[in-house]
Amino acid sequence: MAIKKDTAVTRGGRDSVRFEGAVNPPVYRASTIAFESVEDLDAAWARRFDRPYYGRYGTVSTLALEQALAAAEGAEHAVVTASGMGAIAGTLLAILRPGDHLLMADTVYQPARDFCDTHLARFGVATTYYDPRAGEGLRHLIRPETRVVYCESPGSLTFEVQDIPALSRVAREAGALVVMDNTWASPLGFPALERGVDIAIQSCTKYIVGHSDAMLGSAALNDRGLYERIKETLCSFGYACGSEEAFLGLRGLRTLSVRLERHMRNALEVARWLETRDEVERVLYPPLESDPGHALWGRDFTGAGGLMGVMLKPAPAAAVRHMVDGLSLFSLGFSWGGYESLALVTTGHIRRTAVPWTYSGPVLRLHIGLEDPQDLILDLERGLARLRDAQAHGKG
Q1: Does 5-253 match 256-392 in CATH topology?
Q2: Which long-range contacts (CB under 8 A, 24 or more apart) does 288-296 make?
Q3: What are the residue ranges spanned by the domains of the chain?
Q4: 109 is catalytic
Q5: How would you label 72-104 residue by residue, b for 16+ Cβ within 10 Å and e otherwise?
Q6: What family is this (predicted)?
Q7: What is the Cα gyration radius of the chain?
């Protein structure tokens, strides 16, 4: 029976008979898997992608999470890794060979850019960064050796929305694969495979785990041969995730739909308030009607998370720090996607090579959590008052 994604995230990977009635698969801690005979052990190699073979290939817990994530993504297969960066690195290493060419969105997650510029370059893979708004204009950057077009929509820190169906058409014509980091919206907010993506990557650390207490990554796809190649590569590099983390990923996945709805509702309320403030130049959040990517977001997305950028009007760095340091409901830290609100000063950390970032004012990244949005607004209002006070008294 065909089911909707809200049902898939609650039912995927479950087997009440196999797990003796447990509604969520329990934790199976294992490295060694015992077999009945030499013949059974030898035969198990051929089935190592589908059943427990050795802990690095997956335990009962990690295989259950892979089944559940595949259901959520609308994919035939999913591979889980120890982190989102592990999913990015393992996927690219599985596909690319020396002499190949990678087209990478200029707005990509910074560690992914660093991986391309260091490790892939050392392996003989060339990377070209492209304007994330290129759409079908990407065609002029395609080379005969282009193997992957990598997308991240919206882009890290500056939140440009990409025309994924157009990029996918260009890549398909050239025989290249489309890989997308879809963490911001999750598979519930953006059906990546339906939009033409070949491999959808998640930093499950974020919305899928949802509680800031485990690190996980995943890659979902339909091609069986490519799936086996990616999983074998991940196992060779030792990127396997632990059973405890898999359990936390499964537990978080069950409530993903209702949490995302609340994150987006809260974020929209906070973003619309921020737009009214004299201290704010622009709010970077695609669900906002004023956002440059809003039309594409409305066409292709079915939801959003709570992550946004805030471009403040010019202010001294010390005044911005005074604002952020005094926030009481926004923790200061990396990552996002948990139930809590976070703030990060991103000024000076926005790296672009294809399309320069020219705004000279301070920029914040906010993750709007599950707190009452009016409380968050009051906290930000007090923060902006500190910003004004610091400017008035010449701090900075």
Answers
A1: no
A2: 291/159, 292/160, 292/161, 293/154, 293/159, 293/160, 293/161, 294/161, 296/161, 296/162, 296/163
A3: 5-253, 256-392
A4: yes
A5: bbbbebbbbbbbbbbbbbbbbbbbbeeebbbbb
A6: Belongs to the trans-sulfuration enzymes family.
A7: 22
CATH of 256-392, one of 3.40.50.1260, 3.30.590.20, 3.90.1150.10, 3.90.380.10: 3.90.1150.10
Taking each helix axis from N to C terminus, what angle separates 243-253 and 60-73, rounded to the nearest 10 degrees? 30
Which secondary-structure segment (H or E) carries 169?
helix 164-174
Half-sphere exposure of 76 (CA within 13 A, CB side): 10
Greatest CA separation found in the chain? Answer: 79
Instruction: Give the active site residue among 5, 206, 282, 386.
Output: 206
Tell which residue, 205, 168, 208, has the closest CA to residue 73.
208
Query: Which of 95, 92, 99, 96 has its CA nearest to residue 113?
Result: 92
Q: Determine which one of 100, 106, 163, 181 is catalytic.
A: 181
206 is catalytic: yes
A 10 A CB-CB count for 347 gives 17
Residue type (1 letter), 294? H
Which amino acid makes up residue 171?
Answer: A
For 5-253, which CATH class?
A: alpha beta
Exactly one of 56, 251, 272, 382 is catalytic; name it.
Answer: 56
Mean pLDDT of the chain, nearest integer:
93
Please pick, among 28, 53, 109, 239, the residue that the annotation labels catalytic.
Answer: 109
Asked about 285 being catalytic, the answer comes back as: no
Q: What is the pLDDT of residues 179-189, one digit of tens each?
A: 999 999 999 99
Give dist(CA 263, CA 207) in Å, integer: 10
Average pLDDT over residues 7-16: 66
What are the pLDDT digits (tens) for 284-333?
Answer: 999 999 999 999 999 999 999 999 999 999 999 999 999 999 999 999 99
Q: What type of residue is 108?
A: V
> Is this model's pTM higher than 0.90 or not?
yes
The answer to whether 256 and 9 are in contact (CB under 8 A) is yes
Quick one: 246 exposed, middle or buried, by C-beta within 10 A (0-12, 13-18, 19+)? buried
